[in-house]
């Protein structure tokens, strides 16, 4: 059995179960009435931090693949991105339904007036086209190049999400700084890889041009 088949058959189902565990934790604690003194805040914070963790995990897949040379890792990029969207949707819906009683006017007022909500809303809205076009059918329809360009929005989502967390936490910014550093490092690795690729192509380009000059 190839490593891709092993990952597909055994590791992927485990990752799925693990990724649903935070939602299971919420359901379990809600059932036992054990969500603390402010259950809405507990649900919002829990779903928010898990959304951010899955965004970071999604961003980490390609750099990890380059560094380890273990290509089956790419099998996790789409599911992890969709789990980020799943927790992001739960997070937004908690805020929309339980904080704002389904009144979009109130949400919009917050989006306009409170910078940390502006950043969170931006991060979430940008995830919608990414989730909708995550299928192979959409890769075919858009073409690989356009699809890749569109999916670079995940970088903006990562930055906006860490900014949202940083601005939301007013006192102890230790954790937001950890997440922001993680996202910055992952984006820097991608920029470094893109620059290395451009450098590798450049001499060939010059060589082609030189004889004509
Ligand atoms: C990619 C999208 C998003 C991510 C990754 C995210 C992440 C987070 C994180 C990490 C926290 C703080 C958790 C903690 O302190 O332990 C948080 C809190 C919060 N987020 Fe988001 N968020 C996102 C989108 C949104 C959106 C769209 C809204 C509403 C429009 C929103 C509203 C809130 C609110 C109100 C809190 C504070 C909850 C409280 O303390 O009661 N977030 N979010």
Q: Which terms would index this structure?
A:
mainly alpha; 213 residues; binds protoporphyrin IX containing FE
Topology, pairings included?
Blueprint: H1 3-31, H2 39-68, H3 77-99, H4 104-113, H5 115-132, H6 136-142, H7 144-150, H8 153-168, H9 174-209
Helix pairs in contact: 1-2, 1-3, 2-3, 2-8, 2-9, 3-5, 4-5, 5-8, 6-7, 8-9
The chain binds protoporphyrin IX containing FE (HEM).
Describe the structure.
It contains 9 helices and no strands. Helix 2 runs parallel beside helix 9 (174-209), helix 3 (77-99) crosses helix 5 (115-132) and helix 8 (153-168) packs antiparallel against helix 9 (174-209). The termini are far apart. It has one domain (3-188). It is 83% helix and 0% strand. The longest helix has 36 residues, at 174-209. With 213 residues, the chain is an all-alpha fold. The chain binds protoporphyrin IX containing FE. Protoporphyrin IX containing FE is lined by residues 41, 44-45, 48-49, 51-52, 55, 88, 91-92, 95, 107, 117, 120-121, 123-124, 127, 157, 161, 164-165, 168-169.
């Amino acid at each position: 059995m190839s490593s891709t088949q092993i990952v597909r058959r055994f590791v992927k189902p485990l990752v799925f179960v693990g990724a649903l565990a935070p939602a299971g934790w919420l359901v379990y604690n809600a059932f036992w009435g054990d969500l603390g003194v402010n259950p809405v805040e507990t649900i919002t914070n829990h779903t928010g931090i898990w959304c951010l963790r899955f965004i970071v995990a999604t961003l980490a897949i390609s750099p990890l693949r380059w560094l380890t040379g273990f290509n089956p890792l790419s099998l996790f990029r789409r599911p992890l991105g969709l789990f980020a969207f799943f927790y992001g949707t739960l997070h937004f819906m908690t805020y929309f339904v339980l904080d704002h009683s389904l009144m979009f006017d109130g949400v919009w007022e917050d989006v306009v007036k409170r910078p940390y909500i502006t950043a969170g809303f931006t991060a979430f809205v940008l995830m919608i086209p990414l989730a909708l076009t995550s299928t192979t059918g959409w890769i075919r329809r858009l073409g690989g190049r356009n699809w890749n360009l569109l999916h670079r929005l995940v970088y903006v989502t990562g930055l906006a999400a860490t900014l949202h967390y940083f601005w939301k936490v007013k006192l102890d910014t230790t954790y937001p700084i950890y997440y922001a550093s993680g996202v910055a490092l992952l984006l820097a690795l991608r920029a470094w890889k893109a620059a290395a690729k451009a450098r590798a192509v450049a001499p060939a380009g010059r060589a082609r041009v030189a004889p004509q000059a």
